[in-house]
Amino acid sequence: MNTQRAASSQAVLITGATSGIGLACVNYYTSQGFHVIACGRNESILNQLNTHHFLTFDITEPQQVTAASAALKQHLVQHDLSLVQVILNAGTCEYIENVFEFDSSLFSRVITTNLIAIGYCIEAFLPLMATGGQLGLMSSSATYLPFPRAEAYGASKAAISYLGRSLRLDLAAKPKKQIGVSVICPGFVKTPLTDKNDFAMPMRVSSEQAAQRIFEGMVKRQFEIHFPRRFTFILKCLSWLPEKLLIKILAEKSTK
Predict the structure, then answer these.
(1) Which residues form a coiled coil (predicted)?
(2) What's the rounded Cα separation, in Å, for the pair 156 and 116?
């Protein structure tokens, strides 16, 4: 674990920090003077990051998450830090290629990583957050509409959006802590994960642009952080269409 002394007492924890949006957030928050705690599974990559501290753990392993929480608590105390933001960004994306050969193992894998593991992280890190902190949950603009082959990914992210709304209510009932919730709903962002997609990705933005939007939204304590706005506006408008028309527009026509 890297244990450089931070100039700032404000700490932010970011999961999935070794690539894509998470890595871009690490770099952006560091440039803004935050004490960044980068989290991921690959220690060799984490060790090369320009950050103040890192924690190596797998979010799908509850014992590892618990151990990371204990290490984080010690680090915060030792360096007199306030954990003002937690961004639970780590996740995965896999598609159901043939609905008549539904891959339940794939479904379980995606739900575990994108949803169940978030529960482990909330249990571990929420109690460590400072009064007035902001919790960021990575959802997706895919939750605005159903998309072909997205049964696993879309279901996991829709659950995250609901989780965020419910958390917001319960945290609002604890006014002394004043912890806010942001649900982050990106459109297409250029990352190693989206580079694997075999379909068009209109209005795709860079991971650096995504990191800036996330930073701005978290600082403003926005509940829904969605971008790029033109793209998400189109999706939201389409979601108002009748279901039969949506199916005609969105369903992939099979030639098999």
Answers:
(1) none
(2) 9
